Amino acid sequence: MNGAEILVNTLLSGGIDVCFANPGTSEMHFVAALDRYPRMRCVLGLFEGVVTGAADGYYRMAGKPASTLLHLGPGLANGLSALHNAMKASSGIVNVVGDHASWHLQYDAPLTSDVDGIARPVSHWLKRSHAPDDVGRHAAEAIEAANGRPGAIATLILPGDAAWNEAGTPLRFDPATSAAPHRQPLAPRADAIDAAARALLSGQPAALFLGGAALTAKAMEIVGRIVAKTGARPFSQTFAARVERGAGRVAAERLPYPVDHAVEVLKPYRHIVTVQASQPVGFFAYPGKPSVLSHPEAEIHPLCGLQEDVVAALEALAEAVGAAGVQPVRAMRAEAALPTGALNPLAIAQALAALMPEDAVVVDEAITGGFSSYPLTATAAPHDWLQNMGGSIGFAPPVATGAALGAPGRPVICLTGDGSAMYSLQALWTQARESLHVVTLVFSNRTYQILKMEFAGVGAGEPGPSALAMMNLDRPDLNWVKMGEGMGVPSTRVTTAEELCTALSRALSAEGPSLIEVML
């Protein structure tokens, strides 16, 4: 058994049976091993950012890591942007990165690079297997690291000779025990629960600031009891990895993105209890504006971090504030009317609220076009909402691809701007190849509208011709219908609310992927 075969065998033994891949010469023995282990589903991406982004989306929905297969330093570098987003979302991923055979590195061939140095900033765990006898042990360690609490990115560098050479003693360990499942969360801290309870019962205005697994339906039920008892106001992070929301579930208000708006919303609160979230801070720095969004006199009370058992912590807090038997307020299903007339963010939100099926997964990178959709879908059918926590552009199409594989049978709705989607449009091809039920809505305003907002936000004045040329997507105009069809995805363009409703209803009831270019 050679090193590549040991690697595939270990991944499968550790529960990893999906590999998002863009391989090259150094990884061909891994590719060959896939023929001998057909249980590993290998999904080809035409750009490494699609590969790593899909692994992020897969983890968010499947709750377990996938692997990636990347070609040397440049291939890994192409995937760094999506790995940055995955790190911020605490997604578990096992990256397998090929490298030149060990004896070839000395010749500084064209693709020679510092793979370890490129990988280190986006890896919680990083090792290089120098020989096939190292591969199984290292792969098991990588799986265990990726399955940590919170999820982690583990990168295994596999030189060509470590992949193709035969191991002296294949599988000198038991993968079933070495590749451990999810680590158990830490128990909540009594002092943190006591401090949070005192803050919520102090009589001063208090808020809960929620992230991570606190935004699951199970945890939000307990949050709802605490809120009903204490009057605290629940906020979610502006961007969260996964929010389980909709009719029948307890809702949290999304903290606004603009700094001035967020500061005003948080101004009354003198106690903020954070639950698997850090204190509220601005996405960017702005001249004359604060980085910390809470009132200067507000006290921050961390209840639990991402490594702790959030349900146990919330249950203990509910007990401490006397909310054990209190009934939470849940979102009631509201039958939304289909919009008519002109297309605008409000009409898009109304269409989503009316037509979104139960158990849909929404992947949101619409930025300026999508902020309206979030509050107006709070009473839609129960669904999950995935957001970009790292801010690196091109997030939505790859993550939607991975989410569809991680939650088979559930429709995925991808909300993206035309500028954002250009970074990762190759994901459409993978969706077509894998027959994934992903409905992509491209909000086509032919500009980076967020940059115009930020230009004003930083006080840069009025943009002139040169500045506008850096923000407008014209000369030539993008044609998403042609690009979608060129990737094998049925595509259409809509210019009215009625056309959007017709196209969205048809796409959600069809099989396979589709794209709707929404002209704004």
TrEMBL record:
SUPFAM superfamilies named among the record's database cross-references: Thiamin diphosphate-binding fold (THDP-binding)
One of the GO BP terms on file: small molecule metabolic process
One protein family per Pfam: TPP_enzyme_C
Enzyme Commission code: 2.2.1.6
Domain Thiamine pyrophosphate enzyme TPP-binding: start-end pairs: 380-518
Domain of life: Bacteria
Key words, A-Z: Thiamine pyrophosphate, Transferase
Domain (Thiamine pyrophosphate enzyme N-terminal TPP-binding): residue spans on this chain: 1-106
Family: Belongs to the TPP enzyme family.
Name of protein: Acetolactate synthase-1/2/3 large subunit
